[in-house]
Amino acid sequence: MKYTHGFISATGNEWLSTEEGKLSVDVLESNDEIIVRSAIAGVRAEDLEITLSDDTITIRGNRGHGCEALSNEQLHVQECHWGTFSRTIILPCHVDGENVDATLKRGILTVTMEKSEREKTVPVLEID
User: Fold this and answer.
1) Is 35 within a domain?
2) CA 8 to each of CA 14, 47, 95, 111: distance values in angstroms, whole numbers, following the listed order
3) pTM of the entire structure?
4) Is 16 contained in some domain?
């Protein structure tokens, strides 16, 4: 699993391709953390890339088919997405990019991010 912390280019349209699958996610918030979970069965950790930038997280990956198609097979229904997928999520608050943990266990990806304390109060000065 590759994790990078940096800027995501707004002009990089490669993740907007119609051939790419869209990852389903759950986003949870506790007092101290933001947690992103996704069921991504059939994906190995080395086939994932997670990028965090300010208040967004992008998860990209590739799910290989793993099966050979036989020449006499006829496809009737195809609901499973095979190939590349990604999802960019705007987080509900700022997180600390240095305190991120990503685990893949039994096909469930869990990314845990510690909230950062960026909210500051601004004093109001009264001027006569």
Assistant:
1) yes
2) 12, 19, 16, 18
3) 0.71
4) yes
